[in-house]
Amino acid sequence: MENSEGVKIESTVVTEEPLISALDIALFVVIITVAYFWYFKRDKQSSSSERKPYTIQPSSLSSIERTSNSSFIKKLKSTGRSLVVFYGSQTGTAEEFAGRIAKEGARYKMKGMVADPEECDMADLVEMKEIQKSLAIFCIATYGEGDPTDNAMDFYEWLQNGDADLEGLNYAVFGLGNKTYEHYNEIAIYIDQRLEELGATRVHEIGLGDDDANIEDDFVSWKEKLWESVCSHYGIEETGEESNIRQYKLVDCSEVLPERIFSGEISRLKSYENQRFPFDVKNPYLSKIAVNRELHKSGDRSCMHIEFDIDGSNMRYDTGDHVAVYPKNSSELVDKIGELLNADLDAVFSLLNTDEESSKKHPFPCPCTYRTALTYYLDITSNPRTHIMKELIEYASDPKDQEKLKLMASSTPEGKKEFHEWILRDNRNIVHILEDLPSVKPDLDHLCELLPRLQCRYYSISSSPKVYPKSIHITAVLVNYTTPTNRVNKGVATNLLAQLIPTNDELPQPTIPIYIRRSQFRLPPKSQTPIIMIGPGTGLAPFRGFIQERDYARKEGREIGEMVLYFGCRKKDEDFIYENELQEYVANGTLTKLHLAFSRDQPEKKYVTHLLEQNADELWNIIGEKSGHLYVCGDARSMAKDVHSIIVKVVMEKGQMTNSQALNYVKKMEQQKRYSADVWS
């Protein structure tokens, strides 16, 4: 028999067999399985490779985003502008200064725009020469241990690693720093010099603002001379026209649905109700307060030990890191503003940027109520700057109030003196100004536009993740003080924290938004390396974490090096914080030596610096002979400077060096991360 295709088939088979054997089936299954995995793996790889170019990394803009949104040159050309002011800001001050410069450009027929370097393709600077009479100004803060701010990091690295030809670029730089820190305005100085090296033309000498003195005065003085240099360089004259054009316009949002209204979130609407990892400056974690206890034993001052619960958050920290806490203003001050301005604080509004090309559409999350803006988004407790005095003039109905504001807003010696005495020395905030100049009644939406953003507060973490992986500890002194006008000013964050006391019942525990900021303040990689820690008062905080970590290593059977702690406070029986813990660490051998200075327990005041001078041999033995590490935490203005001088003196005497050699030795220690400071002013 033949089938239709002519193939012969045997018809003499006696026993019938299946057409497909078990072996055939097994082979078929193997082939199908291999084909399945090959096909879908190829598809997955293809899909992944197709998606890869569209991935946006958190720290930089994707190539697509840069092409479409980040060309500041295109924005300048399309809107007929010639002035761009970049800012590198960590707390908002540099951004505020940049906005003021851009606004004043109109007086010199230079239409300006403010730009965040993180959102721009800074390689476009090479094209600035294509715009007639163009100028780029940089308001740059130096942060931490001589580091660029987060939003200026990419630009800083571009300058370091690149060799762009910036001939034809006209520029000026204003730096924001603090003289109590070693790396005073280091980033601004570098940018100023590097731009010149790459061929750019400096239109005006660099300005260096000192936040430890009067950075507002530094900025205003530099800005006046800047415009003189601009006029000379471009052959232009000031128009004399004062620019009081609003940057934002008021939008009535009374019809907006409640679920679309911000209620204190930093960036994403309803982010506290729907938390998403990772947590950072724009997306903080709403942490429960697990512990809040008093550390001082007596006296009229308060120091709090607070523990933030991070269990289940996936947040990780290292010993020596900082935690950022987002505060809110007191309801008493907020209500006072509403009362003074006769305003409805529960009205819903939005402020929309009048510059349609600006990437910053709102000054803070909008829409929201005025109460929310004044509580969560605006700084109403710091000293207002001179440009706010200027903007308030038009709202003063009393000629005397007008004249006072005009004087303080001016750059005359008399005006600067009045501003320094009435605002800075007397420590007035916006509430005090409205109280003491009763005829001044600004529109509340304009006031919200003028006030700076309320910033998070940073605290050294006083715990080790090895011992406390599910909580973050801080040590904070409650800030309250009386001003020369007999008002009591209260620290925004610490007074809020003081109210957040956890309960033992079924009630919801108090919460506060936080995130972790990485630090370079680190223990040596090897646990055997000896260390000296100098931390009076709450400067003890990070060292509590250091000691916990070394104690953990000791209990694991690892060898640990010498740990010497210098701690100081006023009185042993009053503010010796963590006393029992420290004594226990001494008893079990983790803490080799504990040097204590109680400044007011004897007729003559005694500080940790006195103990350091007395223990020169011990200091040199650890940092000189044993190549140990030295850490300082606390006040930058005096203590940290005094410690540095003592260390240099010890190195000179015990290391038998000249002053120059000793300074170089200490400098090398800093470069090797063997001398680290976590200080504040």
Automatic annotation (TrEMBL):
GO molecular function terms attached to this record: flavin adenine dinucleotide binding; FMN binding; NADP binding; NADPH-hemoprotein reductase activity
Principal location class: endoplasmic reticulum
InterPro entries: CysJ-like_FAD-binding, FAD-bd_FR_type, Flavdoxin-like, Flavodoxin/NO_synth, Flavoprot_Pyr_Nucl_cyt_Rdtase, Flavoprotein-like_sf, FNR_nucleotide-bd, NADPH_Cyt_P450_Rdtase_alpha
GO cellular component: cytosol; endoplasmic reticulum membrane
One GO-annotated biological process of the protein: response to hormone
Alphabetized SUPFAM superfamilies for the sequence: Ferredoxin reductase-like, C-terminal NADP-linked domain, Flavoproteins, Riboflavin synthase domain-like
CDD domains: CYPOR (cd06204)
Protein origin, superkingdom: Eukaryota
Keyword annotations: Endoplasmic reticulum, FAD, Flavoprotein, FMN, Membrane, NADP, Oxidoreductase, Transmembrane, Transmembrane helix
Record field: catalytic activity: 2 oxidized [cytochrome P450] + NADPH = 2 reduced [cytochrome P450] + NADP(+) + H(+)
Transmembrane spans: 20-39
The keyword Lipid metabolism is assigned to this record: no
Domain FAD-binding FR-type: 282-524
Sequence ranges assigned to domain Flavodoxin-like in this UniProt record: 83-227
Cofactor note as given: Binds 1 FMN per monomer.
Membrane-protein topology: Single-pass membrane protein
Cofactor requirement: FMN; FAD
Residues that coordinate or bind NADP(+): 301, 538, 599-600, 605-609, 642
EC number: 1.6.2.4
Binding site for FAD: 457-460, 475-477, 481, 491-494, 680
HAMAP family in the record: NCPR (MF_03212)
Sequence similarity: Belongs to the NADPH--cytochrome P450 reductase family.
Protein name per Swiss-Prot or TrEMBL: NADPH--cytochrome P450 reductase
Gene source species: Rhopalosiphum padi
